[in-house]
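Sorry to interrupt, but I need a hand with the structure work. Could you add the entry underneath, on a fresh line?
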Amino acid sequence: MARIGASPLAFPDFHGATRRLVLVNLGSYFLLAIAGVAAPLATRSALAGLIFNPTTFLHGWLWQPFTYSLVHPTDLVLGTLFELLSIWFLAGFLEAFHNDTWIMGLYVASVVGTALAALALYGASVSMGLSRDTIPLYGCFGGIFGLLMAIGVLYGDVQFQMFFVIGIKARYMALIYALVAIAMMFGTMRMYAFAQLGGALAGLVFIRMAPRRGFSFVFSEKWYGIRNGYYRWKRRRAAKKFEVYMRSQGRTVKFDGSGKQIDEDHDDEKRWN
C-alpha cells in the first residue's frame, strides 16, 4: 500500500507551489508580528480589513475572501505551525502528481469557497431571523481542507501516518476531519466549521471541473485555436480574391477549403510531393 514519502515520517519535497504557499503564509505571519510590535493600533486596524467578516464584506470590502487566509494571530504560534506543516505535507504530496498551476488553483478555490460558505450561512441566518453569527474568519484552514479533500477523493487508498503513529487511508482521514467540522457546527464556532466544509466542497468542485493541466493551459489552447482560425479565414479570403482576379485575367485558379491551390493538371500524389 502506498505511503507518503520514503518513510512514514518523511515530508514531501519543498518546492514549487508548496514552497510558495508556505513562504507566503510564513512571511505574512512575521510581517504582522513585526507590525504589531512597531504600530499596534495601526496593525489592529489593518487586520480588521484583512480578515473576512460578512458584514464588512457586504459593505464593499471585496478583497477579504482573498486576504483573510494570510492572517495568522501571533499569539497562536502552534496553530500557525500546524497550518504551515499541513500545507507542506498535503500540497507537497499533490505536487508529485499535478503541476503548480493546478495546486494554486485548488488552494485559492478552497480559500474563496470557505469565505463564500461563511457568507451563505450569515445570509441564511439574517433571512430566517436568527442570531447573526459574525465570527470573523482568518487562517488558511479552508485551503487545507480543500487540499485534504483532493487527496481523499483522488488518492483515497494512500496511507498516511496520523499523528506519526496510526496508519490510516487518506479517504478516512478526510472523513474524520469532516466529522469534526460537522460536530463543531453545534457549538459556538458554527460559522467557522461550516466555512471549513465550504472549503472542502469548493475543493471537490475544483477537482471535478478543473482540467488536469490547469486553466492556463486550456485558455492558451483556446487562444491559439482562435488565432489560428482567424489566420485560416484570412487565407481563404485572400484565395477567393485571387480567384476573382485570375478570372479577370482569363485564367481559372481554384483553392480548397484551407486556402491551398488545387493543381488540376497533376494527380493527388504529385500535388503533395
The two ends are 56 Å apart (CA to CA).
